[in-house]
Amino acid sequence: MARFIFITGGVVSSLGKGLASAALGALLQARGYSVRLRKLDPYLNVDPGTMSPFEHGEVFVTDDGAETDLDLGHYERFTGVAARSTDSVSSGRIYSTVLEKERRGDYLGKTIQVVPHVTNEIKDFLDIGADEVDFMLCEIGGTVGDIEGLPFFEAIRQFSHDKPRGQCIFMHLTLLPYLAASGELKTKPTQHSVKELQSIGIAPDILVCRSEQPIPEKEREKIALFCNVRKEAVVAAYDLKSIYEAPLAYHEQGLDQAVLDAFDISPAPRPDLSVWEDVKDRVEHPEGDVKIAIVGKYVQLEDAYKSIKEALTHGGMANRVKVSVEWVDAELFDREDAAPHLEGYHAILVPGGFGERGTEGKIKAAEFARTRKVPYLGICLGMQMAVVEAARNLADLGDAGSEEFDHEAGKKRFTPVVYHLKEWVQGNAKVKRKADDDKGGTMRLGAYDAVLSAGSRVAEIYGTTAIDERHRHRYEVDLDYREQLEAKGLKFSGMSPDGKLPEIVEVSDHPWFIGVQFHPELKSKPFAPHPLFRDFVRAALENSRLV
Ligand code: GLN
């Protein structure tokens, strides 16, 4: 049975709970333990799949096809443990399960209440797979005191009470604001936050205090005394230059030791941190610099492309260079020349996206990269737009486009070289969708196998011809245009195992031009950069030496 670590936050939001959880997971692994990380989100959406990336950031997709919170991306990047659909839950999902059960009559006519029905559902969720790992780390979204979070806090309180003594601990993240006028770190908000937790029956074992300034011994003692935690369990979290320094930084501040102490694990196994020392060294000592443009629509909120940004950083680490990413709004050159906006970058990446807005700009970005021989990586919509560009400009299909945009506009304007996929094979089963399935969870989601053509550039990059990658899309490049496009140099170098769905295209006569229907960024890790990102950054570096 796993030991449980519940991670909560207080004082303000955005303190980096997800990062602290992920870093702690990595540190426990470094001491030889197996871990799994989970996120419990208090919002009422059933999953983040239909939430705007402007508001909620990227949707992280798991191998088993769940659309989850971007914190699961942090968890995977730090621990390498593939997240599952059962690692993320929202109030919306919990309530809808409870209400389904009520409609089915499962509760035998009882009055359905938050306690015990909702809390029991949360507790059952926490127990899933608990016998598979040494530690289960469960992060509660939001901050203590939020109305919507209450059922989760009550559930974890009950859960720790139900389990044998010593099986669960609570770690609480707070902020120590610095008052420049008095030159002091203030501990009062932390004290209040802990009081709030205590008032709902939870006594934290560990406090992680975010602070811009070093925490003086005197303040640490004060926090320990007033918040009823041991002094060594008051752990400082200072601002870091790179998130990948977090495991080492938390280790130096004693977080993993404090956790093991809280569980009474003695003697503590010694940690092997060599992986993180190497990662830190690569981040801190780059030997060059490349400039990459991400041409997208959600450029105002960088979190919308979180995993892509991180995967590029990993690609940089693999090549020992710093990747400077600049976000270029595709709409800027929907109607004008792309060149002035894209000259000067060593490579161009067009990420995934939904809807027509900005797509003419993305098509121009693909054209610019293809004709100017600038390395191009098109991801999902970025691949589809590269195909549209090739169809228009190489294969004489001047009105080529995606059915997605015709559907959106409610009229037919394009020759659909990218069409709405309604039937496909997943494993041994057929999946079917209707034309009007446009809500959450109706896409081709999760891991699918692909077969790469022997001798293709991608087969060389991956070092294999059999891969699996994560998908999240409704539309697909139409195989009917394969011959026409291949004759003009756009090769279909990766296909679904049944040969029906194009997974990868590449331009043969180009230093590096690849479009992928899937999301490789979701599987990249700092200690194991994704091959496509590793090689894309290498190509950017090579290009930087030419210009
Ligand atoms: N909108 C496109 C589709 O649904 C691309 C999706 C994506 O980029 N993730 O196929």
TrEMBL record:
Start and end residues of each CTP synthase N-terminal domain: 3-264
Keywords: ATP-binding, Glutamine amidotransferase, Ligase, Magnesium, Metal-binding, Nucleotide-binding, Pyrimidine biosynthesis
Active-site positions on this chain: C380 (nucleophile), H519, E521
Entry's Gene Ontology molecular function annotations: ATP binding; CTP synthase activity; identical protein binding; metal ion binding
Binding site for L-glutamine: G353, L381, G382, M383, Q384, E404, R474
EC number: 6.3.4.2
Family: Belongs to the CTP synthase family.
Protein name: CTP synthase
Taxonomic path: Bacteria, Pseudomonadati, Pseudomonadota, Alphaproteobacteria, Rhodobacterales
